[in-house]
Amino acid sequence: MKPDLTHAAQRCPVLSKARPDTRKLLVESASLRRLDRSDSLFLHETHADQCFVIVFGWIKLYRILPNGSEAIIRMHTAGETLAFADCLRDGQHQTGADAASEATVLCIPAALLREAIASDPDFGRILLTNSFDQIDSLNEQLESLKCQTAIQRVGCFLRRHARLREGRLVVLLPFEKGLVASYLGIKPESLSRALGRLKGHGVRSGREEIEISDPAALDALIHDDAGSLAYTG
Amino acid sequence: MKPDLTHAAQRCPVLSKARPDTRKLLVESASLRRLDRSDSLFLHETHADQCFVIVFGWIKLYRILPNGSEAIIRMHTAGETLAFADCLRDGQHQTGADAASEATVLCIPAALLREAIASDPDFGRILLTNSFDQIDSLNEQLESLKCQTAIQRVGCFLRRHARLREGRLVVLLPFEKGLVASYLGIKPESLSRALGRLKGHGVRSGREEIEISDPAALDALIHDDAGSLAYTG
DNA sequence: CGCCCTCTTGAACCAGTTCAAGCGCAGTGG
DNA sequence: CCACTGCGCTTGAACTGGTTCAAGAGGGCG
Prior knowledge:
Two copies of one chain form a homodimer. The first copy, chain A, is of the alpha+beta class. Chain A folds into two domains: 3-137, Jelly Rolls (Sandwich), CATH 2.60.120.10; 148-223, Winged helix-like DNA-binding domain superfamily/Winged helix DNA-binding domain (Arc Repressor Mutant, subunit A). Helix content of chain A is 44%, strand content 25%. Chain A is built from ten helices and twelve strands. In chain A, the strands form three sheets. In chain A, strands 1-8-3-6 form a four-stranded antiparallel sheet. The longest helix of chain A is centred in the middle third of the chain and has 27 residues, at 121-147.
């Protein structure tokens, strides 16, 4: 295995659980690609002949809307897989994918992926489990979009991306705020105002870095009154 | 196979593609359950020892929010599978499930599902493909919630559920409007007003049945200006 | 310095919610 | 048979969260 990929493979739920020889097959025959911000990884509705594991950075999945602008469907980061579904169905990419930050991805030829599945019966199981986990995460996003206000969604986003760093709980924004906004289903202006309003709820937002100074206060805001849009049958 | 299940199995993407003996195994050993509206199929965070194929009717997946109301995550209907993921991971149900209308479901013991996967290597592949399709559909829902207005979402919902019936394009509302609203991420009042506004765009809404008299007009509304919330990076 | 790009801020506007009232219909009981 | 009641749906009026449009601040870079 290429030395710089060992760590990446450990972070990846699919590769790390795969049988060593399967992992070796996938990683050794794959190529590594570096992307700058806004470089394109693949285009919507093109034939899927490669799938990807993100080693580093962020990739956005998007679709072009009738009016020409792009809808951000999902954001993916290190360890996550891309386009496995498109490859296995031997079809077209369901979305486009661009780098949202500097990024490195492992590019696995579709044939290799099929070979791994054919030769390692457990590997299919691993993919299935991974795919179930993705469905869970999508269900949560749906719930969040349907039942939370923009400010609560911003709060959840911050909590999810916060990391301990020298004793402080900090969010290093992984990509532009405009993109964060779009991912959350709001406009950049609204995100800006939301961050402003969160200052009263345990959040200190600087440029490039946001600190959660009072996680409890933020959690209270997130959970309080969540469900103003819920079904009361 | 029980005679009344042949048709149901054909409608189900998972069962219909499975090897005949696998299908037989699953269907014959499963039990059939009838549900009235609002009967519970399983509860959130209970152990998943059965999975389900919907034979008839609608099932809603929901989660109880901190404030006690319920968030509608997804709606499922005939042919669709439920809780396969929860069973295979041998875990708890990720959501609760209630009948949203009268419904009939095929209840498959978890052990049986595992047996099918173990004895039929293709069956895992079929589940994987099915799970990929679900992810696609969830991606589309996310896109819709992020980039479309409530009225456009209502329009899409109508198009998706419209069926030709005696030459007219008709939507028989599968369940209460309050539930439709919640599924679409809006309040019942807003759904009511949306249907009112759609009257000017090729939709005639009566009680229990909505007719799409001018599909082209409706489509125009749906696509026109879609993406007011999109990312313009 | 000047240009570009991202982010912020303000004011007007609009979509969708909230609250409250009323309607239509099914079920119930007199 | 009809009043009573309960529930789902609609409608109206006031309100709020988020958008829109426009202007300005701040930073990076040639």
